[in-house]
Amino acid sequence: MAQAYLRRTNPLLPAVANAMLFGCVVFAPSTAAALDFTVQPRINTGAMYYELDVENSISVDDTLPFVGGGVTAFVDRFYVDLYAQGAFSGDDELQQSQGVDDPSGATIDWDRAEYSASAGVAVTDRFSVFAGYRRSDMGFNLLSGDSDVALFDYQNEGPFVGANYGLPININEWLKGTLALNVAVARFDGEIDFSNVEVPDITGDTVGYTAGAAWIGNLIAPADSGLFANGLNYIIGVDGYSYNFDQDNVDPADPGGDEISETVIRGSVGLSVPFNL
């Protein structure tokens, strides 16, 4: 594999960083206005399209199921959120090796985990701002015959800031809820750590903008008591991104190397339950 380099560019696909979080935040003003302290756990599941393209080296993609969970704590109009997500093993035939088609029949499989923490404030009943930190970890293995060899690990992490706007919609009882719109900017540092290969590790960074939407509705209305005393909300979201990176340690003698890009597109459904503590 030729030494790769990471080149900066804006994301090709604007989308939300975490559609589930924005769904919870939309309900923060109305919930927190009546309750001094509210905790809102949530779960979600869906499908993720993942693509890693190392130009002139390898290119793999697959659609993976994933599950995630988190919790948001509100104090009046302020909130703190924690979220974690895991994608099940993806696999794909090795499409390229050293820039040419690879007919060897080898496959690459991988796992992906993502973690984020953020804090924000609802400026108005519809508009909020937030800042946080996100990290994702992936491990790629090369499978050929009966052998399973670690190929490389890929991590990226960094801060993000953004804003969210909730637009109430009430057309009929079947189309009643809130459309959450958001925009954010993130700066990520990335690192590729090769295994069993005499290739220097790659580090780089990128800055990109993200935007997206989520639909939030009420599945169970609030009751006087019980588990769903404050109701049960459902969330349908789509999020994703596509980043290229600038390598920090470019070799001036390298005539070019390879561009590395990562693309994630996710669709999810989830549930959230607010609790008054």
Briefly say what this structure is:
The chain is mainly beta and 277 residues long. It has helices at 19-26, 28-34; strands at 37-54, 58-75, 78-93, 96-97, 100-101, 107-122, 127-144, 147-170, 176-194, 202-220, 232-244, 246-247, 260-272, 275-276. The chain contains two helices and 14 strands, in the order ααββββββββββββββ.
Structure, explained:
The protein has 277 residues and is mainly beta. It is built from two helices and 14 strands, in the order ααββββββββββββββ. It has helices spanning 19-26, 28-34; strands at residues 37-54, 58-75, 78-93, 96-97, 100-101, 107-122, 127-144, 147-170, 176-194, 202-220, 232-244, 246-247, 260-272, 275-276. A hairpin with a 5-residue loop joins strand 8 and strand 9 (176-194). The longest helix is centred in the first third of the chain and has 8 residues, at 19-26. The radius of gyration is 21 Å and the shape is elongated.
SSE arrangement:
Elements (H helix, E strand, L loop, with lengths): L18 H8 L1 H7 L2 E18 L3 E18 L2 E16 L2 E2 L2 E2 L5 E16 L4 E18 L2 E24 L5 E19 L7 E19 L11 E13 L1 E2 L12 E13 L2 E2 L1
Antiparallel strand pairs: 1-2, 1-13, 1-14, 2-3, 3-6, 4-5, 6-7, 7-8, 8-9, 9-10, 10-11, 10-12, 11-13
